[in-house]
Design brief:
Layout (H helix, E strand, L loop, with lengths): L7 E5 L4 H12 L3 E5 L3 H13 L4 E3 L7 H15 L4 E3 L15 H19 L6
Parallel strand pairs: 1-2, 1-4, 2-3
Helix pairs in contact: 3-4
Length: 128
């Protein structure tokens, strides 16, 4: 028996790298996977790969630094599958340089993605 058989998951940042690997592994374990990332074309490629291997997946383009997009991601997942069992907050970006040379705008981009994006996905709208 597959360990995640029948489970529903969202994996953020799943268009490449670690997020992609998690999505592919979850699918091989029987999980239905929602891929969430900004790069729609790459997400669609991962969805196709999962489906070719007999898994079930959909892509919902999402910028997790945008609270409304995260709300839509959760709502569409529940609408499509009826529930959400697993959330992997994998999406993240780097600052791209030495901290003493980092602009406030670059710092805000990192914090909005890496910290606020995780907060938006985990904390229910009713609390915010």
């Amino acid at each position: 028996m597959k360990r995640l058989n029948g489970k529903i998951s969202i994996v953020t940042g799943s268009s490449s790298g670690i997020g992609k690997a998690i999505a592919l592994k979850f699918a091989t374990e029987g999980c239905r996977v929602v891929l969430a990332a900004r790069r729609q074309q790459l997400c669609d490629q991962v969805v196709a790969q999962i489906r070719e291997q007999g898994g079930e997946a959909i892509a919902i383009p999402t910028d997790i630094s945008d609270e409304s997009q995260v709300g839509r991601l959760i709502a569409e997942t529940r609408g499509q599958f009826g529930r959400l069992d697993i959330l992997v907050n994998n999406a993240g970006i780097g600052g791209g340089g030495r901290i003493v040379e980092t602009s406030t705008e670059a710092f805000d981009r990192v914090m909005n993605t890496n910290l606020r994006g995780t907060f938006f996905a985990v904390v229910p709208d009713s609390v915010r």
